[in-house]
């Protein structure tokens, strides 16, 4: 008889640790995320691979694949793991949002108009139409959004819902809230008596 896991989670799990993205040029991606999106490089590693069948067994990629990695902190609640691969069977076209495996990374902002105008000044960023506001008697009503592409074509999104969303009227369930402020961790210059609000 199969064991039912309905409504359960992974034993001892505490949080989502990171999101991983494969990029065509690691240096370009690190520069973009650190220079324009406020990320901080925590550690780097590689080249990694070229050891028999290890890459297939560990990472589900071609055995001859080689990876370089940069691990970034992106604000108070998210880590971002960037991979640059070389592999004999590599597909070099990024999926659209409508493709299987398509994905995007959403950033909550307090003022989406200001955030969109900022992105217009960032070299290589391609903005889709927006900001767009969901209206009417729908669950996402009140959510403003604007999609954009990084210089190498990664899908990303700005979102904002300062007045709340439609679904909040019909249920007590809530999506995880945004942090009160954007910070990549405790300041190196903050003392124990500092009134700076810290992220554990």
From TrEMBL:
Zinc-finger as UniProt keyword: no
Top-level division of the source organism's lineage: Bacteria
Sequence ranges assigned to domain VOC in this UniProt record: 15-161
Keyword field: Metal-binding
BP GO annotations: L-methylmalonyl-CoA metabolic process
Biased composition (Basic and acidic residues): 189-200
PROSITE patterns: VOC
Family matches, as Pfam families: Glyoxalase_4 (PF13669)
This protein's record includes keyword ATP-binding: no
InterPro entries to which the protein is assigned, alphabetical: Glyas_Bleomycin-R_OHBP_Dase, MMCE/EMCE_epimerase, VOC_core
Disordered, as annotated region: 175-200
GO MF annotations, alphabetized: metal ion binding; methylmalonyl-CoA epimerase activity
Protein name as annotated: VOC family protein
Organism of derivation: Gulosibacter chungangensis
């Amino acid at each position: 008889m199969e064991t039912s896991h309905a409504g359960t989670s992974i034993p001892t799990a505490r949080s989502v640790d990171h999101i991983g993205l494969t990029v065509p040029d690691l240096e370009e991606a690190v520069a973009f995320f650190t220079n324009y999106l406020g990320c901080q490089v925590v550690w780097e590693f590689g080249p990694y691979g070229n050891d028999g069948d290890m890459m297939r067994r560990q990472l589900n990629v071609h055995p001859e694949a080689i990876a370089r990695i940069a691990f970034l902190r992106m604000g108070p609640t998210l880590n971002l793991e960037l991979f640059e691969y070389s592999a004999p069977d590599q597909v070099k076209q990024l999926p659209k949002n409508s493709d299987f495996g398509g994905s995007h990374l959403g950033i909550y902002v307090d003022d989406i108009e200001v955030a969109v105008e900022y992105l217009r000044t960032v070299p290589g960023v391609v903005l889709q139409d927006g900001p767009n506001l969901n209206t009417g008697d729908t669950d996402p009503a009140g959510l403003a959004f604007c999609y954009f592409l990084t210089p190498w074509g990664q899908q990303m999104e700005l979102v904002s819902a300062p007045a709340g969303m439609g679904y909040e009227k019909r249920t007590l369930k809530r999506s995880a809230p945004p942090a009160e402020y954007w910070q990549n961790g405790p300041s190196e210059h903050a003392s124990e008596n500092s009134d700076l609000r810290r992220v554990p």
